[in-house]
Amino acid sequence: MVPRSFAALAVAAMLLLAGCGALSSSQEAPTEQPPVTESVTESTVTEAASAAPDSAASTAETTASPTETPDPDAAADVEWVEWNASLPAALPPGVNESGVDADTLLAAHGESLADTGFVVTRNTTGQSADAAQSTSGSVHARVTANRSEALLRYVTGGPDRQVYLTDDRLFVRTVRDGETRVRSGERTPNASSVPDDFRFDGDVATFVENAAHEPVGSVVRDGRTLVVLEADAEDARGLFGPEGELDGDVTALRSQVLVAPNGTVVEHRALLTVTEAGGDATTTTYRYAVETGTVTVERPAWATEE
């Protein structure tokens, strides 16, 4: 029998990893393989160049330092950004001094990424209160402006998976228990390995829609003033509220969003603790970052059709 606390942990992590339906199912790690060409090789050595995310693609490190959270012990690895209390005269779309219009902000975020290249990283970790059960997952995507090329990497509880896309072809590399499989096929609009928009921002949407964020200050990054939005457990609503569908009550919540002047959600950090009626608690942390600009994608060595 699966322990109840672990079941709740898995549900909470998977629910928010998927964005609670905010994004289409194609945003998740592809479950189908292109049914065309397949090569299978045995491997016990990880290919460093293709298995690790491109270090040049990672977002800029912040100067943040840990601050007090609803549960400092459970969230020791969350580095909240420290901000100054001033706000710019012009606020991002959907943001005003008293709150946030979630629909407007999320629409602006999507539009800001529509015609540019970007690199996005999303990480999720979950842990039961006694640390006996844990789960984690990550997505790293590097995408050109016209979406003609993309390199995606999914790390979940299952096999590690990478997807490389060209204008007309797709390649999927899966590594499980030392066995490496590479499959290739035609890139079609409805292929399960091709995300709808490549943003992987379901967690961002979930928190912005279900916690009433407010602007609390700003930080300066690369000459841009980013507005900092914050929400805590008292701001919970919808999914996170008393009538929400989570298997328990939200007993700790903190969400921090950094927004560029044009509405791009440059970074998002969050912590969520859900406590069941029996007292079992699970804490999940979230991290999202996107960097925009001119992006090139190098064809990985494994993407061949021999």
UniProtKB/TrEMBL annotation:
InterPro entries for the chain: DUF7537
PROSITE patterns: PROKAR_LIPOPROTEIN
Disordered: annotated segments: 25-73
Compositional bias segments (type: Low complexity): 34-69
Pfam families membership: DUF7537
Protein name: Lipoprotein
Taxonomic source organism: Halogeometricum rufum
Lineage, uppermost ranks: Archaea, Methanobacteriati, Methanobacteriota, Stenosarchaea group, Halobacteria
